[in-house]
Amino acid sequence: MFKKILIANRGEIALRVIRTCKEMGIKSVAVYSTADAESLHVKFADEAVCIGPPSSNESYLKMPNIIAAAEITNADAIHPGYGFLSENAKFSKICAEHDIKFIGASAEMIDRMGDKANAKETMKAAGVPCVPGSDGVIETFKDCQKVAKETGYPVMLKASAGGGGKGMRAVWKAEDLKDAWDSARQESKAAFGNDDMYIEKLIEEPRHIEIQIVGDSTGKACHLSERDCSIQRRHQKLTEEVPSPFMTDELRQKMGDAAVKASEFIKYEGAGTVEFLVDKNRNFYFMEMNTRIQVEHPITEQVIDFDLIREQILVAAGVPISGKNYSPKLHAIECRINAEDPHNGFRPSPGRITTLHAPGGHGVRLDTHVYAGYVIPPNYDSMIAKLITTAQTREEAISKMKRALDEFYIEGIKTTIPFHRQLMEHPDYVTGNYTTKFMEDFVMQDKQ
Length: 448
What we know:
448 residues; Rossmann fold; 3 domains; 5-stranded parallel sheet; 15 helices
């Protein structure tokens, strides 16, 4: 087992990993930018190393600084969390070259699944259902026109190196294809340094449902049920739940089997998710694979009583998995609390938190790194907390969430707490009748 793990991340996920390290008797090293000097992950780690100024490019994405921090603290493993370098093949390779275990996917695996066009071809070979569309990257606009016509409108243009909704364009008719092609490639080039595109059939009224998987060094994999991530704004998730209100036992069996098949086909090692789009007729199609821990992993932990971070560490140390597949016995909901103003287009709201009262009680979990007096820097993602409620039924989980949100006071900045309060009372959410298009029609109400 590892003696010391450096967490190459910040905020709540860094603190989350530190807690499991302590429970496993493993020393932890926090890294931080000068903007994060007062963050809780810095205070709670056994050691902490400053790796640069506030800019991510000069700190959390600066590979030489992170490797140097690992070497001077004698860390024998690095946990990347999510975001930043968690799916960076070069960083995974550098860790291996320095004899430091990267608690995540290998460089080869990240390269193989990180490129969405290649990943789709791999999944086809594995026998996993895929959305109809192009066979890999489209070379020219003429080819794009041909594939779009063969696939049938509406279609979705996607950046091969994309993520977070960048480089994606829905096209409903042929005359709009050229503008979508040009703008998507331009956006992808600016965001990822790569303008390769592929095309898929646009799935109407879709749900975004992902399957949590874990694979070990022997090539064996298992799944830990699904998460419904359909409530999104600009392809960024706002809330998640497990089980999905759209799921049936038969569908869970089929999707779980497909996710395990996909993982074992590529001999995936570590925790990851196989992401699917599910249409209104419960046909499911492979969308992408995330080769890292997900933001929303706590709701899976809550419904099956399972520490996913611990499992990541064990698998990285060579411990084989049990091979057991899981079904949820409880219901859990996660609300992402962001430092944003939902009444003004979810505008970011960095600044000092003057007052904070955290909710509590049975079935309430709060993952956060902030506190009263903490200054939220403007340099990073706006998520400051994850509020999770767990209960015997979905109705009880929603009731707990409404109560917990009413208890959750954060002053000094704007947050998305008011949005989530309204969401929990929206008729379509309450009945589970929602798709990824939900936020297109959602309007914030001014309430005192």
